Amino acid sequence: MASQMTESAIEEFALKLFERLGYSIVYAPDIAPDGERPERRHYDDVLLTGRLETALRRINPEVPEAVLQTALKEVLRVSSPDLLANNEAFHRLLTEGVPVSYRDEGAERGDRVWLIDFAEPLNNDFVAANQFTVIENHQKKRPDLVLFVNGIPLVVMELKNAADENATVKSAYQQIETYKQTIPCLFTPNAILVISDGLEAKAGSLSAGYTRFMAWKSVDGKAEASHLVSQLETLILGMLNKATLLDLLRSFIVFEKNKKEDAETKVISITTVKKLAAYHQYYAVNAAVASTLRAANMGADAGIWESPESYGLPGVAKQPKGDKKAGVVWHTQGSGKSLSMVFYTGKIVLAMDNPTVLMITDRNDLDDQLFETFAASKQVLRQDPVQAESRDQLKALLKVASGGVVFSTIQKFQPEEGNVYDQLSDRRNIVVIADEAHRTQYGFKAKTIDEKNERGEVIGKKVVYGF
């Protein structure tokens, strides 16, 4: 039976790993429109709607059946000529729920129907299906593996045989590119693409070029996997386990918008790039979120792992609760620091009680750069970031009762004159992120320095305070 079910040993190896992770294994021809247990009416139906309906009822028990059916129609209706626009619209429904309104005891009531239970990963239906045939516009294609959550195809995997010299990871990528052209309906709900030759394995987003597909190098975020273990095994166990897959979907995917102006025509076009966190960003952000909740003495929430010890970070575990020191994340150049900060902010906004997040730099160009990255990724932040233009505006933004993602240079905290800083807030849920923490950001204590005149001559002493 096994040899009949799979085309190759690599596919079978992958399926065994998914079985280990608690996925149901389905041979896709069995659930095809003309299969033994059909779950699709047509070959261009890519959602397993029976499974999705069952999940909607289970996850949204308070919502009337008629409203659930309306939400289902909304999900099936996502279609425009542009694949990435479809994908972004669908991602919004996945991560923010489907907005619905209905009459309840005579009053109009707004609600959201959730397609996925993010709080309880095990309350969802996970399926790994091999040889899933799709026919669209008379084009017939069959990706190797498709992962479904509640009947929604979130992951498409293309596997090649490493023993065949023509079948490389690059050729798996080219195969996915062909699928996107010929059967785009499969990619409207897609979250992650995976390419592998059984040894090497890389994951990327729908808009990623080949060089942007990255290996997932750790199963648990504590240590890099041994080189003796295939990258495919590490990627499946580390990235596609139930909890991590849903966490990535909810908090680690951004659709970055960038404006470009044509030099000749002056026409402004907006390009969208879908970006997915790399493994080092994912683990660093989750460790930072756990440490922030400990520093603020707030309980774990929003899908955060239960205790900092689970990150293998002894320093985090030993620090006292409520000490207000969340910690330091070190980055090498080109490791995606700005995007890590976006993912962290998006996640901390969900995990804490509507916090204010204050982003501090000590140079205007850094402030502008970082603000642009955040402004381009506002879907994951769930709000528009604001850049403080002056000292007074900064004070006003920080004196609010809750909420906000605020950008400022450290210099705006300096009083107009003297060394007296007024208290702006006594709230516990203000998170300060210092980017490139240089000397400007050290210390609160008073210190005495030389006071100099215009010619640089010492004319006395003065007391100054650090920022």
Describe this structure in words.
- By secondary structure, this protein is α/β, with parallel strands linked by helices.
- The strands form 6 sheets. It has a 6-stranded mixed β-sheet, with helices on both faces.
- The radius of gyration is 25 Å and the shape is globular.
- The N terminus is likely disordered.
Give a quick summary of the entry:
The protein is an alpha/beta fold and 467 residues long. The chain has 15 helices and 18 strands. 32% of the residues lie in helices and 22% in strands.
The SS-based structural class is alpha/beta
Beta-strand content estimate: 15-25%
Question: Which residue ranges are poorly predicted, with pLDDT under 50 across at least 5 consecutive positions?
Answer: 1-7, 300-308
How would you sum up the global shape?
globular
Radius of gyration: 25 Å
How would you characterize the largest beta sheet?
Answer: 6 strands, mixed
In percent, how helical is the residue content?
25-40%
**Strand tally:** 18
Helix segment tally: 15
Describe the strand arrangement of the main beta sheet, using strand numbers: 1-4-7-8-9-10
Give the distance, in angstroms, between the N- and C-terminal Cα atoms.
Answer: 69 Å
Mean pLDDT value: 88
